[in-house]
Write a structure and sequence with these properties.
Elements lengths: L2 E5 L4 H12 L3 E8 L6 H12 L4 E6 L22 H6 L9 H16 L3 E3 L15 H14 L1 H4 L5 E3 L7 H10 L24 H13 L15
Parallel strand pairs: 1-2, 1-4, 2-3, 4-5
Helix pairs in contact: 1-7, 7-8
């Protein structure tokens, strides 16, 4: 059985990726990050998901991206709320965390090399309205090229592959895929700015995109919201 390292935040996308990897027969080590994010509740969700979907083991790595700031997720900046899709698509949002996916994939690559694995799985998505630059195919292709020259295994001939099964799916398509794989989305967390009791705010970009995805997929949304996202 081939082994894979799966980036797992505990959110809708990464959970679907883990289910996808398990369905394809990968023995999965899941990797979550405590990076100074305001929504640290996602770490508990990641642990739940890893156990429920049969990960071989689950790792949590601490990387203090709050030390560099620059994002509403790691610094004292307001999280955008109540935005429509046009506003979300207009520019790279303040919830973008500088170099986050570069750092996360670099750690995942190091872990994969120590495990003798050459497969990495991540939930990057190019058509989501978040518009993050490190979620595009060009970024993934560049990282695979980097892995070949930046690791002993790569130099010795191993070929690392970053699987991004959600790259060209919209949220409804992701939810349909996960549902077909038996994912229980009630155990996941997507909100950028949750309430103290862990409920999703219902107003941030992530909540609104998640809720719209469930509506478009025609699948009941199991999320506990403080305020149910509007349909505009």
């Amino acid at each position: 059985m081939s082994r894979a390292v799966v980036l797992l935040s505990g959110g809708l996308d990464s959970t679907t990726c883990l289910a996808w990897a398990r369905k394809r027969g990968f023995e999965c080590t899941t990797l979550a990050f405590d990076y100074g994010q305001r929504h640290r509740v996602e770490l508990a969700a990641a642990a739940r998901v890893a156990a429920a979907l049969g990960a071989r083991d689950h790792r949590v790595v601490r990387v203090d991206l709050g030390a560099i700031g620059g994002s509403a997720l790691t610094a004292d900046l307001p999280v955008p709320r109540g935005r429509d899709e046009a506003a979300m698509a207009a520019e790279i949002p303040v919830t973008y965390v500088p170099a986050r996916n570069t750092v996360f994939l670099a750690v995942a690559l190091g872990l994969a090399e120590t495990l003798g694995a050459t497969d990495l799985v991540a939930g990057m998505n190019a058509i989501d309205y978040s518009g993050y630059p490190d979620c595009r195919p060009e970024f993934v292709q560049a990282f695979e090229a980097l892995a070949k020259v930046a690791t002993r295994a790569g130099v010795e001939g191993a070929r690392f592959t970053v699987h991004t099964p959600l790259m060209n799916l919209d949220k409804a398509g992701i939810i349909r895929l996960g549902t077909s794989l038996g994912v229980d989305y009630a155990m996941t967390h997507s909100c950028y700015d949750p309430a103290p009791d862990g409920r999703a705010c219902g107003a941030c970009d992530s909540c609104r995109l998640r809720a719209k995805g469930f509506r478009a997929a025609g699948i009941p949304d199991p999320t506990r919201y403080v305020t149910t996202p509007s349909e505009d």
